[in-house]
Amino acid sequence: MAYVVTEACIRCKYMDCVEVCPVDCFYEGESMLVINPNECIDCGVCEPECPAEAIVPDTEPGLEKWAELNAKYSAEWPNITVKGETPADADEWKGKDGKFDQFFSPAPGKGS
Ligand code: SF4
Ligand code: F3S
What we know:
alpha+beta; 4 helices; binds iron/sulfur cluster; binds FE3-S4 cluster
């Protein structure tokens, strides 16, 4: 079991999550962060920290796509452990639908 980052993170990237993770298992893409399911210890500490409510346990139904995406890209993107600069328009994209189709990028972020 692990927690997964979902569509709500795209274009928001508040990064409060990375500061609280005891095992530093967040990885940064250009458009969102993901969690490495092999490293996550399922502590749940990050879930309430995300202002976009983007982090959920993988036991919730309908999360297969996001679980796969977290597993795939956490193996490709750089680790991030320190909160970076949140996009200036993050609040405008909070809670918006359809962000994956429009804005998901497989490109890596900078990491930290
Ligand atoms: Fe890190 Fe715990 Fe969140 Fe997993 S559930 S990503 S271990 S803070
Ligand atoms: Fe994304 Fe929420 Fe973390 S928006 S970067 S999962 S705090």
